[in-house]
Amino acid sequence: MWVQRLIDLTGWEPLGLSVDWETVEGELQVPLPADYKELFEAFGGGTFSESVYFFGPSGPHAFDFLAQWRASLAAGGSDDVQPIYSPGEKGVVVWAATEWADEYAWLVDAQNPGVCSVLVRGDVGEWRTYDMSTSEFLYRVLADEEFKPFGIAHHNLDPEFEPGRSLPGS
Fold first, then answer.
1. ∠ CA(148), CA(32), CA(116), 5° rounding?
2. The predicted structure's pLDDT at residue 79
3. Domain spans of the chain, in order of start
4. pTM for this prediction
5. Which residues lie closer than 8 Å to 75 by C-beta, 6 or more apart?
6. Fold observed for domain 2-160
């Protein structure tokens, strides 16, 4: 339902990408949200409304969340509140970011597979939890003027999607 709303909002023609989710989830050792997989298969990685960078398990490095996750994990990345997800553990996997340095992530817990809370960190650095699906969260960011503080609809940006090439400055 929410994926279709994003397709309608952006006027996007779904790509119908084929992704080897078994391999991706095997590396992570947890299942990813079903609606995220549907969203990625429809759009691929890229930019919504010229400001929300949507990551996937493949594509240009700047839009490849697996490559970024591996690099963060190798660097021992974590913040004061949430560690980077490590297979078999609990932690954060980032699936999108904005030009304003917001990060959209899941809180993944290998002991509770299939449950991925949406976490968002703005420029203040604190993580906020949203009890909704990945695609609902993204739709609200793009289309709901009352979705604060992370919504962008009030900026009157075109709700379009541009397939990923690279991020500015990368």
1. 45
2. 59
3. 2-160
4. 0.90
5. none
6. SMI1/KNR4-like (3.40.1580)
Q: How far apart are CA 85 and CA 135, in angstroms?
A: 21
Collapsing DSSP to helix, strand or coil, 78 comes out as strand
CA distances to 3, 30, 141, 145, 148 from 72, in Å: 28, 18, 25, 33, 28
Is the pLDDT at 169 greater than 80? The verdict is: no
pLDDT tens for 125-146 read 789 999 999 999 999 999 999 9
pLDDT, tens digit, 9 for 90 and up, residues 53-93: 999 998 777 899 999 999 888 887 665 578 899 999 999 99
Q: For residue 158, give every residue at least 6 positions away whose Cβ sits within 8 Å of its Cβ, in sequence order, or none.
A: 49, 50
User: For the chain, percent helix, then strand, then coil, each to nearest 5?
Assistant: 30, 25, 45
Residue whose C-alpha is closest to residue 117's, from 151, 144, 142, 82: 82
* pLDDT at residue number 117: 87
